[in-house]
């Protein structure tokens, strides 16, 4: 430890208390975190660097969870198994080594060409389903917060089917990385906006009458 004015007994007690705190924190994490969740366990097949330690059961686990994916893989399980074996036997690629994000790795794998087309086309399709699983509800909470900020008691007439979704679309997709005063819509967007505004005004005027 660094130099201090503590007595040896006080220093020893401080070290013991710190150790107890770290132990309690770890016990809390092990108790409350989903460390044994089968979904997280099977999702490990996505880890390119641990691919040799995974089994095809993990791929089958997710296929059984998505009806649309299960239907898409009907009659293709043998080909999918072959792709998984090829994935496990795949050597270290210099370009893959430069990729740190797992979605970028699977994007790269999904575009790799083989003798008869995409080398990991089916396996990459399964991976895409797994990668879009939300890790938390933080994104949904942000949307709810945005709704509450826009649809207030002073603006209670915002339509849930037209106006409010349009505002959410703009805020979510366009202004995340661009300030509103720097956003320059394309001519196509302006034409569509003008057409939508004309339609909205026409419907609104006819309703008011």
TrEMBL record:
Residues 115-162 form the HAT C-terminal dimerisation domain. This is HAT C-terminal dimerisation domain-containing protein. GO terms for molecular function: protein dimerization activity. It comes from the Eukaryota. Pfam families: Dimer_Tnp_hAT.
């Amino acid at each position: 430890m660094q130099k201090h004015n503590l007595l040896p007994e006080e220093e020893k007690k401080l070290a013991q208390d710190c150790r107890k705190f770290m132990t309690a924190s770890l016990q809390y994490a092990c108790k409350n975190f989903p460390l044994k969740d089968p979904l997280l366990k099977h999702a490990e097949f996505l880890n390119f660097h641990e691919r040799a330690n995974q089994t095809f059961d993990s791929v089958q686990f997710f296929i059984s969870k998505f009806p649309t994916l299960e239907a898409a893989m009907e009659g293709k399980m043998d080909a999918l198994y072959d792709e998984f074996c090829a994935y496990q036997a795949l050597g270290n690629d210099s370009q893959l080594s430069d990729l740190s994000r797992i979605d970028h790795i699977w994007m790269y794998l999904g575009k790799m060409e083989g003798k008869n087309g995409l080398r990991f086309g089916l396996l990459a399709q399964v991976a895409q389903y797994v990668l879009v699983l939300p890790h938390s509800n933080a994104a949904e909470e942000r949307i709810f917060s945005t709704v509450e900020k826009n649809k207030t008691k002073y603006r209670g007439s915002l339509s849930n089917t037209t106006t409010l979704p349009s505002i959410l679309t703009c805020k979510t997709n366009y202004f995340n990385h661009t300030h509103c005063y720097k956003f320059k819509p394309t001519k196509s967007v302006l034409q569509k906006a003008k057409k939508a505004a004309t339609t909205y005004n026409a419907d609104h005027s006819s309703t008011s009458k």
